[in-house]
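Researcher: I'm preparing a figure for a lab meeting and need a structural model of a single chain. I don't have an experimental structure, so a prediction will have to do for now. The sequence is pasted below. Please return the structure as tokens so I can convert it later.
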Amino acid sequence: MAQGIVVRITVVTLFPEMFAGFTKATILGRAITDGIVEIELVNPREFALNKHHTVDDQPFGGGPGMVMQVDVLKNCLDSLGTRQETQRILLSPRGVPFSQKIATELSRQPHLVFVCGRYEGVDARIESYLDLELSIGDFVMQGGEVGAMAIIEAVTRLIPGVLGKLESAESESFSSHLLEHAHFTRPREFDGSEVPEVLLSGNHQKIAAWREQDATVATLQRRPKLFARHLAASKTGEALAGKLHIALAHHPVKDRAGEVITTSVTNLDLHDMVRMARSYDLAKVWVISPIKAQRDKVLHMAKKWNQELSTHDRARGWQNLEVVSSIEEMKTMLGQPALIGTSAAGGREGMVNASDIWKIIASKETVLLFGSGWGLTETALAGCDYVMNPILNESQYNHLSVRTAMAVVLDRVVGPLVDSYHPMTQSP
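Model: Understood. Here is the structure written out token by token.
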């Protein structure tokens, strides 16, 4: 039953015939039939200023191709309603990238006008009469028509009544800045590949948890920048950062000759570790030394910051510092976390990259373990669940201080997310 036109869409195109099948097929066609959406196709040649219906001319300054004329397009736009009555959108490679967020905003507009450029583009002066320029990607097409179709489909499916259930649209890819989870149907087993057992369990809570985890991992692996937006729009980033620890072991570590030694704690290491943990909002900083006098030194510094300098912003970092005698003691206190060792040497089987670590953090508490001196011993690395690939550079010199290595590793682990999510810079 018709419920009245919700959204009117006008497409300004030199090739209206391209939309014939598009406006009749599937969900959009049904929405048009039901009167929820109205689509109007307007050819700008109807507003040309000469008997030849010319809509383009040679570009000033020279160059290949032809440019669509501003006066023709302006006359066309004026015929469609005032600026207050219409949302005017140009499909252009210079436009802002189209996204699900923009689709949602456009679905609330009563009248959308899409201007499809052709040839080498449109006269830039038309921008004064537009509300928005959109691009569907960094690639070259013949014109804006296919892009307009993509946007129209994304927008109209969000209009109430177009889909059977609104949650059908809200639960799909990008609505929560996550890719959609994987889908399965019959047969249960195909060519040796089986449907995940949890999906056959009938336990809706476990199924929902599996789907969320699958969507999270897929987004992180394939679209890290999209995953960053997911963190920014949710508490997920805060929760993940709160499960990441850094630890500096002073034993067992190596000296220049490869012998096992115990190194001394340094003030510079402590201060920089605390600063890094505070900046990235990490869970805790761990200092590992078997020598009681060294542990007491660290505890004395922490006490000074926590009591005498407690109002200083950096004091929050010192409050999250733990001092233990061994790696095993730390693991026991954390309930057997995922332990990721670091080394300047590569070539190990199964080494992980920075992009892998968020997947690990999503499943359990995680510690990035660094070694002072000349790095962790082979025994220490063998006791880790994972070993991270070394920091690569083009020179043969690979002797960064442990503080510098920590900073680089943290930036590589958290860096892809920082543009969109950083606990220190988000509004409360």
